[in-house]
Amino acid sequence: TWRKRSGGPPSRCRVGLGLTMTSTNNIRDWEARAKILNERHEVASAMAQYAQILEFDPTRHASRARLAKLMMECSRYGDASALCDAGMSIAPSAPVLAVKAQLSQVYFELDAALAFGEQAVQLDPLCGDAWYAWATSHGLAGNEYRSEQIIDRGLKSCPDHVELQVESLSRATISPAQQAENLAALHQEHPGNRTCLLAYGIILFAMGDTGGAQAIRGMLLDYTPNNHAVLAIHSLHGFLSGDVDGAESYAQRAIGLWPDSF
Asked: Residue 2's beta-bridge partner residues?
């Protein structure tokens, strides 16, 4: 709940984990708690808290980007795009540009994805999300060698960035068994990272561990039941496993969330 001063910013805010914050508190504490909620896979609560942070201070671009990424996980691509555009109208931001690159990937607008990713890195070379978005944009465009170069450069600047580690540890030049071992260890270290968990599930399926892969997909759908990408992968894996009816069901759910999906 909010109480607003006349002509000024909010004076009081109740945020997640049962805490009441005032305007004198460090807003980074709010962001840390939103991050905890997300890592607990309490996605709706994390989104609500990030929204409260932005209501209090619209210039918190990292929180804006995190909220937009969560919206993407919920297939709310239009809302994520509008949120990013609102942030860019305030000031350029590397995290927000990185999300715009990822949104462009969703729509297969590869030139825009590459441009936004490069702009994000140029704006802040210490933003891991920027390197990740630029690298994956090149990967989607078929520029695998360039993508790997960017991943390596990104890890030099941001060695702790989990998504960059996922990309590095699952390169095509690494054997599937080693990829699975790498991603299992990374997931154990970062159990709250759903990108890592998804990548682990995909490599398990590729190795023939359909049961392990299905269990992971089920976990991800519990965490984000409206995740178009997870539903699409669930459908594909079901089809390849011979479960045509199940594949059709998941495909219909995915299309229902995003009718324009390629």
From this structure: 13
